[in-house]
Amino acid sequence: MGNSKSKKKGSSRSVKSAGSKSSNSGAADAARASSSSAEGKQSGKKKSRPSIVAQKKVTLEDFELLTTVGKGSFGKVLQVKYKEDSKIYAMKVLKKAQVIKRKQYDHTMAERRILEEIEHPFIVSLRFAFQTTNKLYMVFDFFNGGELFHYLSTGGRFSADRAQFYAAEIAAGLGHLHSLGIIYRDLKPENLILDSEGHIKITDFGLSKEDVQGEHDVKSFCGTPEYLAPEVLKRQPYGKVVDWWSYGTLVYEMIHGLPPFYNRNREKMYRAILQEKLKFPEHMSLDARDFLGQLLNRDPRARLGFNGVEEIKAHPYFSKIQWDALLRKELTPPYQPEVADEHDTSNIDETFTNMPAAVTMTPADQQRLRNAGNAEQDFGGFTYQVDNVLDGQAYHVSMAEEDLEEELAGMDLGEE
Q1: Who contacts 359 (Cβ-Cβ below 8 Å, separation ≥6)?
Q2: What is the pLDDT of residue 360?
Q3: Backbone phi, then psi, for 393, in 5-degree steps?
Q4: Is 412 part of the annotated catalytic residue set?
Q5: 202: containing domain
Q6: Model pTM?
Q7: Catalytic residue among 186, 195, 243, 344, which?
Q8: Residue 188 CB partners (closer than 8 Å, separation 6+)
Q9: Of 284, 289, 279, residue with least CA distance to 255
Q10: By C-alpha distance, which of 382, 381, 385 is closest to 52?
Q11: 38 and 107 in one domain?
Q12: Are strands 75-82 and 88-95 parallel, antiparallel or unpaired?
């Protein structure tokens, strides 16, 4: 994980580190307790995905804290070194009290659970998770190539080939999530990190949803304003295809420099998402225009991707992409970040790196919290470790269901 430099001035984007969106992660079956976890589930038993849980437990004392690389309303993200093998990781530290106060328990546990079960070349993987009385800790591989947001906000739009390459790796990652019944719901440049070679890593699963199969399985509304699909703004039940709208918005932004319906006034932007005709800049290729036109179709059933990722991969926009080679990471990225070594934090905002890399100590092996209400809710099943070691972090304000509902309720979006 990592946070990169710079923000677009005057935009609605703002810092979202260890939790300004919804925070992270969940654990196995113990987390499925609340009412929202029932939403979208199919009848019968869920098929569990394979995961590797090591027997050995880790604590904060097993890591050397090096540098702060992100900060948010729930906690912070630190670059750390695992003492046992000296490998560098990113440690996300979440305050339990803030997670409970912001009603993000279910989202936090869901992300933790999702990340435990995923291994993919373009998706961040969870390596360790543990907790003390007051805090949750999640440890990922440290990727220091910088966020896509950093490069878009400092260098402007990408070349056509660079945008296409990133779009292909992101599509492969989203397709994998969808194959597991997971919708991501927060695709944006801040949640996409480059590794040292220039490959994409999708990170931050705080708004993701499990057990989604049908097109109307999900009834909760959350995401980042610039990337919200029309059906979300209309507060209609939806399925995985909402991710392909956000994906189309992101690809447009990579090619052009701004999302297609962007406006600093959110109400006007929402109206544009619902009603305005999609316009293309002159420099955009015909294949890209057709590709984006189909992705940004307001009818979910007619949207490219409704029938799965294969129809996206088959579009002429990707005619140059060799998908098998892409998944093996055999294609050379069009841009290689300037990274000295695994300790390098030069692509991370100095606002964070100048902060002390410290955690208020609590006894590492204290008993987990019992159901005592308020901030003392038990995060049972959170602790986790994989056997062999192989992660990302992030800026656009992500909005959880309660916040988005409140904002939309006060707006006249001119819906028919």
Answers
A1: 60, 65, 78, 93, 135
A2: 65
A3: 180, 180
A4: no
A5: 148-327
A6: 0.77
A7: 186
A8: 149, 224, 226, 227, 246, 250, 396, 398
A9: 284
A10: 385
A11: yes
A12: antiparallel
